[in-house]
Amino acid sequence: MANREVELLAVGAGPSNLALAVALEELAPGLARDSLVIERDQEVSWQKGMLLPEALSQVSFLKDLVTLRNPRSKFSFLNYMHAIGRLDQFVNMGCFVPYRIELAGYLKWTAEQLSQVDVQMGRECARISPVWTNDTLTGWSAEMTDGDTIRSRYLVVGAGRDARIPEPVQGLAPERVIHSTEYLQRITKLRKDFPYRVAVIGGGQSAAELFCAVQNDLPECKPTMVMRSIGLNYYETSKFNNELFYPSFVDEFFVSRPEARKQMLKELHHTNYSGLAPGMMDSLYRSVYLDRLNGRGRLEMITTHDITSARDEGDEIVLELTDWRTGAVRQLRTDLVLLGTGFSQEMPRMVRDIAESIGLEEVSVTRDYRMVIDRPSTAACYLQGVNEATHGIADSLLSILAIRSNDILQDILTHRAAHPENTGPAHIAAAR
User: Is the pLDDT of residue 1 over 80?
Assistant: First the structure.
């Protein structure tokens, strides 16, 4: 496969591109057979760093890859549970939100059920370059880390956002800093009998999960949770707020004025960020309460503090914390830093590199998630999961996957119909 041409290349085999692959198989089998999904990992995985045994999803099982678009699809979460013989048990739980590990299994199963879309694992994309023909963008050339090249007319980027690493800790020894996306893979490599001093950074669900998990994974550790907020808060989860996660709300959000979008995102912040699920909040408070009751002094929480600097000093890390209320500065000496700091709101590096390669000063998309290209083009690039600023708070979540995949697919089909002479790998090959 040193050089291969396909009509559609999707980068990343996460929920977004798997939903698109399902839509392709159900609605456009011809295009499906000329589509390829690549994934850098060796297997389909989802939030593998945080697949903690008791971690629940925050989204209903009905908001899977397909049900809101096609309730009768064989690719539904319920059909997955039936296929593995656990549907009775799941129904008996009486809960709309499955365990995170169940959703991860569902995504892997879905990839295995695809019969027309080609999904290839262990395929990491090093760079993507535009293909030009007489000053017209006619395709994309994706170079793999193994030197192979895949050319396509349509490109769909669904590789997720980059992890957010706070600037003060970026210079620390990497073996002492673990972002939540790598937690399970790396924590298992540490000694269980060592009394690590652990700093957990963040005040949201991920940080709380890290704070609880590390107590079991490193039984002798002493964890300290550091946050800039005045305290931990619940997610705002009223049913009225949840209506703003409907796929239909994307239309309302997209046509709103830019300043109105910013205000809505600000007001909706606690529906998805800087908050804890009720079960996690209660469990966390009980553990802190019992620690105080028993006089152990193992668990500590530091609120209203920013990390203003950090350094490696011998065998330990020294964090400088500044209380934003008083300006007072204190030091926290620790052995390990866990980051529950989420993801950068900046466009991922891959997307920025693509935009730069075609001369775009900024990245913007249409309502149907197509990158706006201000030059003649018969090719297109679509962005999944990175358009919160224009498409609303649900854009990075599972809530809109089924409908978004249909939006993208229908736009591709319309675009192909408008340029039938440029359809197919033969045209891309000719543009070399």
Answer: no
* 358 CB neighbour count, 10 Å cutoff: 18
Q: Is the dihedral of CA 186, 190, 193, 197 positive or negative?
A: negative
Instruction: Provide the pLDDT for residue 423.
Output: 55
Q: Which of 270, 245, 277 is nearest to 398 (CA)?
A: 245
DSSP state of 176: G
* Pairing of β 125-133 and β 118-121: unpaired
What is the DSSP track for 308-349? EEEEEETTEEEEEEEETTT--EEEEEESEEEE---B-SSPPH
**Percent of the chain having pLDDT more than 90?**
85
For 52-88, the pLDDT digits (tens) are 888 889 899 999 999 999 999 999 999 999 999 999 9
What is the distance of C-alpha 76 from the center of its chain?
21
Task: Report the distance separating Cα 22 and Cα 421, nearest Å.
Answer: 27
Q: Where are the alpha helices (H) located in 218-322, listed in sequence order? A: 239-242, 249-254, 258-267, 269-272, 278-293
Domains in the chain, CATH or no CATH each: 3-162+344-430 (3.50.50.60), 167-235+275-339 (3.50.50.60)
HEC profile of 88-101: HHHHHHCCCCCEHH
Q: Is residue 17's pLDDT more than 70?
A: yes
The model's pLDDT over 340-352, given as tens digits with 9 standing for 90+, comes to 999 988 899 999 9
Residue 119 β-bridge partners? 37
Q: Do the beta carbons of residue 155 and residue 11 sit within 8 Å?
A: yes
CB atoms closer than 10 angstroms to residue 165 = 16
d(CA 16, CA 13): 8
Q: Which residues pair with 318 in a beta bridge?
A: 311, 333
pLDDT at position 432: 34
Quick one: how far is CA 269 from the chain centroid?
Answer: 17
pTM over 0.85, yes/no: yes
Question: Phi and psi (nearest 5°) for 408?
Answer: -65, -45
Residue 185 neighbours by CB under 8 Å, 6+ apart: 48, 49
Residues making up the chain, counted from first to last: 432
Considering only CA atoms, which of 171, 43, 179, 193 is closest in space to residue 111?
A: 43
Angle between helices 100-113 and 15-27 (to 10 degrees): 40
By the 8 A CB rule, do 217 and 84 touch? Answer: no
